[in-house]
């Protein structure tokens, strides 16, 4: 910490002087361009009573030997706090939080390596970074000094458009022993979609934000299609972020799989230019702050060629006849064991079909209406056996998710109609002016 803005300086103040020092400290630390600056970016003092602030600093925080705790304990404690706030509905951090069971399963099939550079263009609280970090440390216990140094600084790069999750992510990394307060921040608080990336990565792991379409389209020369759909834009952006041979896992809502126009164009190009090899259909009741049904799309970037790179798309259905809720029956890592086994991460070119795992050839995908990847084949037992319906709380949660999903789709449709109406009005005005 800079001299004069450190912890002992706070301890030497009382009352209004302490409050003033605290406010000045927040403002000063937020001006830096390093990790410290990201943590304190736009931070504000929300404790209006100087006496309570002094009690908090001197009688609670300072009485604990925080520095004696190792990174694992501090990191796990912080992760626990983030997960708890994610459960607080609209007030919490659910929109930035990817369930750890899902992250663990994705990392277990992606198998990140010590020398790789890993990117998340919508990093939220940093869950994918920590999952990859812990996986590498566990699977490679004898890292070289160069590999260990790379893993601590340089392995991870992320973008987050909002200040709050950017701060949470930076703190999360620091408390897990990744980067240092004075190192150049690998977390960029910025709009990842705005510009063509000037760097490429070995692996991209990301859960882009769901929700309404962007207010503006992104006119980028590296994009296959121009659209206001944020999720479709993130899919295109991930392709641009990958090195040739790089791999990715991207969480996408259902509309990315079947939406027409730009969506169809993007799916055609994705299947042709990349090896899109696996799709995981996720169940409802998994994410904290969205009613959108989602999937995980796994693909690798390939060199340009006349022939399509996608030969087969394997689809695992974890949605049909599966019922989860956030509290009574949450998704666990064990629920994804069969998917990981079917994926066969050590040799994904050797796979076998099963009840929930089915293969579709490239020609079969091209023959589908709008090249839809919304693929399912299992019979929904709840539609036939009314005596074995899920618990009322589960049904209620699924109804809420379906309604929220419908509202999201309707909002997107309204936005598109408003844009089209505005465009027609502008054309009419130009025509009327020319006639006049």
How would you portray this structure in words?
The protein is an alpha/beta fold and 436 residues long. Among the domains are: 58 residues, N6 adenine-specific DNA methyltransferase, N-terminal domain (Ferritin); 221 residues, Rossmann fold (3-Layer(aba) Sandwich), CATH 3.40.50. The chain is 42% helix and 13% strand. The protein has 15 helices and nine strands. A nine-stranded mixed sheet has the order 3-2-1-4-5-7-6-8-9, with helices on both faces.
Can you identify the CATH class of the domain at 98-122 and 192-387? Alpha Beta
How many helical stretches? 15
CATH topology of the domain at 98-122 and 192-387: Rossmann fold
Unreliable residue stretches? none
Helix fraction, binned, reads 40-55%
Q: How much strand?
A: 5-15%
Overall body shape: globular
Rounded radius of gyration (Å): 24 Å
Count the E strands: 9
Order of helices and strands: HHHHHHEHHEHEEHEHHEEEHEHH
> What's the pLDDT, averaged over the residues?
87
Alpha-carbon distance between the two ends: 68 Å
- Biggest sheet statistics: 9 strands, mixed
Q: Helix/strand-derived class?
A: alpha/beta
CATH homologous superfamily name of the domain at 98-122 and 192-387? Vaccinia Virus protein VP39
Short description:
By secondary structure, the chain is of the alpha/beta class. Among the domains are: 7-64, Ferritin; 98-122 and 192-387, Rossmann fold, CATH 3.40.50.
């Amino acid at each position: 910490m800079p001299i004069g803005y450190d912890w002992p300086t706070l301890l030497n103040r009382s009352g209004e002087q302490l409050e003033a020092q605290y406010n000045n400290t927040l403002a000063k630390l937020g001006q830096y361009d390093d990790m410290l600056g990201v943590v304190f970016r736009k931070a504000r003092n929300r404790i209006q009573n100087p006496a309570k602030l002094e009690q908090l600093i001197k009688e609670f925080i300072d009485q604990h030997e925080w520095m004696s705790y190792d990174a694992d304990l501090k990191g796990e404690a912080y992760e626990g706090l983030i997960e708890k706030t994610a459960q607080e509905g609209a007030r919490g951090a659910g929109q930035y939080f990817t369930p750890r069971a899902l992250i663990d399963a994705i990392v277990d099939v992606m198998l990140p390596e010590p020398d790789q550079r890993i990117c998340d263009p919508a990093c939220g609280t940093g869950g994918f970074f920590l999952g990859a970090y812990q996986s590498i440390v566990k699977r490679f216990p004898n890292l070289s000094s160069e590999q260990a140094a790379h893993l601590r600084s340089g392995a991870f790069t992320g973008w987050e458009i909002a200040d709050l999750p950017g701060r949470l992510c930076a703190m999360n990394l620091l408390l897990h022993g990744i980067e240092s307060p004075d190192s150049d921040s690998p977390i960029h608080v910025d709009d990842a979609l705005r510009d063509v990336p000037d760097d490429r990565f070995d692996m991209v792991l990301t859960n882009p934000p769901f929700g309404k379409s962007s207010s503006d389209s992104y006119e980028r020369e590296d994009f296959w299609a121009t659209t206001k759909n944020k999720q479709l834009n993130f899919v295109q952006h991930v392709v641009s972020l990958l090195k040739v041979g790089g791999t990715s896992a991207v969480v996408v809502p259902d509309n990315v799989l079947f939406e027409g126009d730009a969506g169809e164009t993007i799916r055609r190009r994705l299947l042709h230019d990349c090896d899109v090899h696996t799709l995981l259909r996720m169940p409802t009741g998994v994410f904290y702050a969205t009613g959108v049904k989602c999937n995980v799309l796994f693909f690798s970037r390939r060199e340009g060629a006349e022939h399509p790179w996608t030969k087969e798309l394997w689809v695992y259905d974890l949605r049909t006849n599966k019922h989860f809720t956030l509290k009574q029956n949450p998704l666990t890592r064990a629920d994804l064991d069969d998917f990981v086994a079917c994926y066969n991460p050590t040799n994904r070119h050797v796979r076998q079909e099963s009840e929930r795992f089915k293969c579709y050839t490239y020609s079969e995908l091209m023959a589908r209406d709008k090249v839809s990847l919304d693929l399912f084949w299992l019979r929904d037992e709840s539609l036939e056996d009314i005596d074995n319906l899920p618990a009322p709380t589960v049904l209620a949660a699924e109804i809420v998710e379906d309604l929220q999903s419908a509202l999201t789709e309707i909002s997107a449709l309204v936005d598109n109609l408003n844009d089209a109406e505005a465009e027609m009005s502008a054309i009419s005005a130009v025509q009327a002016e020319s006639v006049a």
